[in-house]
Amino acid sequence: EDFLERRREVERLLRKSADWIWDWSSRPENIPPKEFLFKHPRRTATLSMRNTSVMKKGGIFSAEFLKVFLPSLLLSHLLAIGLG
């Protein structure tokens, strides 16, 4: 009697799991939309150093460029030494 009860319970559980698998496997596939194209925004200005006004005027040895470059270089090194 106990054996039959266990067997029925196992069969019921197997039937439930089989139903769950059947429902899951028969669901429709997720199909992405066909018109999914990512378009990059147009960039108006380039980020090149060569095209900046400083480089056009006198290059990397101009006073205007060195006034900005050298202090930023010094500060970045001091920050790296301080954190390191």
Would you list the SSEs in sequence order as H and E?
A: HHH
Structural class: mainly alpha
Tell me the total number of β-strands: 0
Rg, Å, rounded: 35 Å
Count of discrete alpha- or pi-helical segments spanning 4 or more residues: 3
Strand content: under 5%
The mean pLDDT is 76
Residue share in helices? 55-70%
Terminal-residue CA separation: 76 Å
Q: Spans of 5+ residues with little confidence (pLDDT < 50)? A: none
Major sheet description: none
Transmembrane segments: 65-83
Family: Belongs to the NIP3 family.
GO molecular function: identical protein binding
Membrane topology: Single-pass membrane protein
